[in-house]
Amino acid sequence: MTCPACGSDDWKAASLVYQEGLTNVDTATKSVGLGVGGGHVGLGIGSGKTKGVHQTVLSKEAELPSENSWRVAFIMGAVVTAILGLFASFWWLISVLFIVGVFATWSAGAEAREKQVELYNKKRVCQRCGHIYYAI
Hints:
Distance between the termini: 9 Å
Number of domains: 1
């Protein structure tokens, strides 16, 4: 498939562009300073360290969409269940409904994630103009 923006057939998969745009950073610095003033002499010594990952803008655009966490649904469900449990005498029924709701949310999230990954595998980045498109 050719790029819809410029017609080039020179492309890379988004997953490769994503990986190529990541760089590990690990730096350290040390310094010494000397100050004189007011009849006094002062000496200062300092150091610093930076560690992390640098990511290009194009790599960020080519990233796999973030996964919706079932943990968020679980926590929100637990909060709602606890609040309703304060006002309801049928606590056990609310707990059962909560468990069913978490399972349904997790199942729907898993299906949606599968579709996201399938679409992501068709994502392309044109090497001529940088346009991001889907090879459908």
